[in-house]
Here is the input.
Amino acid sequence: MVKKNKNIWKTLFVTLVSLQVLLVLFLFFIVSSPAEKDEKKVAEHSAEETGFQEYFSVHMTKEQLSRLINDQMDQGMDIRITNQHIRVSASYHFLGRAVKAAMEFQPKALENGDIVLHEQSVTVGGLAIPGATVLSLVDSQSELPDYVDVQPADKQIYIQMAKIEIANQYAVKVKRLDLKKNDIYLMVGKREE
Here is the structure.
């Protein structure tokens, strides 16, 4: 009977060691195997559809984006991002007096990574002015970059993010732009031509 007990313990020990070895081999196989082919196909397909290969993403707050934009803008303009609007303000001299002008926009991120700024209000001094009129003047009188399309009839400005060049080969796309949640998510990558 003692021999039977020794054989049972020996058998159980060998079985346990065998299971552990198989588990280690199984884990090694899973870790060393390539990712699923379907995920690769989806990533390649999305890069082909958009002509954009994402390298990294950037998550920003409203305050960080405001500082970044203001650093790039003319010193006479000020950009403020609130919970609901993007406010562009400037001060102009008219007949020897400083006159403040401001425009408020409601931003929206599109699926293709571009941004549409819907005009909400325009004021010059204490006077409210129709947005379509001001946008028409901005469109005809300003030298704007190619990636900015002013659409006065729709009371909006369309910003084609993919056309903004960074070091002549990189581009930025907007993934999320939720001012209320302070969630601004940008993708930086390379345009594929």
Notes: The first helix runs from residue 2 to 32.
